[in-house]
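Pair request: fold both.
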Amino acid sequence: MRTLLAIERADVCLMLVDATEGVTEQDAKIAGEAHEAGKGVIIVVNKWDAIEKETGTLEQYKKDVYDKLKYLAYAPIIFISAKTGQRVNKLFDLINHVAEQNSMRISTSILNQVINEAIAMVQPPTDKGKRLKIFYGTQVSTKPPTFVIFVNSKELFHFSYERYLVNQIRKEFGLEGTPIRTIIREKNDSKGDIQNWQET
C-alpha cells in the first residue's frame, strides 16, 4: 500500500534492482504499477561494483533486464553503486530529463507531420478491401503524453500498426522514460465517446 501511494505521488519512479540478484518478481510488480500509473520510470541497478565484469557484461545485463520487463523498453537503465558513489550524481540529471519527457507537449502540426511521414513509409492495414484511414492526431494531456488519433474505423486500427506509430513518435521526439497513451476515436463518432483506450 505504501508503495502504491509513493507511486501515485511521484512524477518519476526509480525502480531499484540489486545487481547481484537481478530483477525479482517484486521488482516486476512495482515496475508494472508505475507503468500503469503513467509515471516516468528509471531502472537503477545498484551494487554494480560487486559484479565481476568482462567485455559485454553491461550490455548483456541490460538485455536480461529488458527481457524480464518488456513493457519498460522505453525506460533508461543506469548502473550505480551507492557504496562507492559511482554514477550517483548522473542519476539526478537523468531524473530531471525523464520528468521533462513525461511532461512533454507536442504541437498538433508537428505531430501530424510525423504521423503523415510514418503513413507514407508504411501504409495502414486493410481488411476485406477496406483500408484504415488516419485523419489526424492531437495531444490531449501530459504525465504521461496522451494522444487522440482520429480514424475511419477503430476495428481496422490493429495493435501492430499502433505500436509502429508510437515507435515513430518516440524516434522523432525521444519521450525517454515515459509511457505513451493513445486514444483511438472514430472521426464520425458524434457522441465523442472514448472507446478503445490503449496504453503502449
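--- second member of the pair ---
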Amino acid sequence: MNRKYRKTVIAGNWKMFKTASETRIFAEDLKNSLPRAKRCSIILCVPFVNIPSAIKVLKDSRVAVAAQNLHWEEQGAFTGEISASMLAELGVRYVLIGHSERRQYFGETDLTVNKKIHAALKAGLRPILCVGETLEQRELGVTADLISYQVKAALSGVSAEDMRHIIIAYEPVWAIGTGKTATPEQAGEVCGTIRTVLRKLYGARVARGSTIQYGGSMNPQNAERLLAQADVDGGLIGSASLNPSDFLQIISAANRE
C-alpha cells in the first residue's frame, strides 16, 4: 500500500450468496463493528436483489454498496439485465465489471467489458475493473502480456479524468475459489505491471494515484503480507467477505499503519 498517493480499498464480493434478510443482519453487524481507524475505504458487492436492503442499513456508514454487474445499454429488450441508471437511482456507487466468473460462465469479452466501463462512468458509477490470467496462461509465461492487453482493451476511450473513478482488481483465475493464493511477490509484481500500463496510457500522476487491488483468495491469514506490497492497494474479497469476523480482520489489516 502507498497511502501517500492513493486510497486503500477493501471490497467484499458476495457472488450468489445471502438473502435480503441475511444481508440486513450482516450489514448491521458490520456497521456496528467497524474499527475506528479510517485508513481504508470499504465496499460490499451484493446480489441485485439485496441492494435495497444493504443501502438502507449502510446509508449513514462508511461502507459503500456495489453491484456485481450491469448491462451496457441504458434500456431495451434485454430480459434479466440491469442498466447503470437503474443502479444509480438505487444509490449504488460502485459496480464490478469483467469478473472472471462473468467472463468464464456468461460470455463476457474484452469488448463488452469496455462497453460496460463507459456505461458505468456515464451514469456516475465507479467501476471496479477485474483482470486476471488462468493457470495455463501463467505457466505459459504470458501473464504480463495478457494483463496488459486486458487493461488496455477495457480502458479504450477512457480519459485520464475518468481514470480517477476506476479501481482495478487483479484476480488470478487460478486463485479464485480454489484456496490457492498468489504469493505476495507474485501479486505485487502483476499489480506493478498494471501500474506500468497505466503510466504508459495516462502518465505517472494517474498511475501513481490509481488504486489496484488483489483479488485472489485474500483472507485474514495472508491479508497483511499481501497488503505490504507497494503496488497492492487493497483486496477484492470473495469467500472471506461472507463471514463478518473474517471480513473485519481483513479491514483491520488494511487499517494498520
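Observation on the second member. The longest strand covers residues 8-13.
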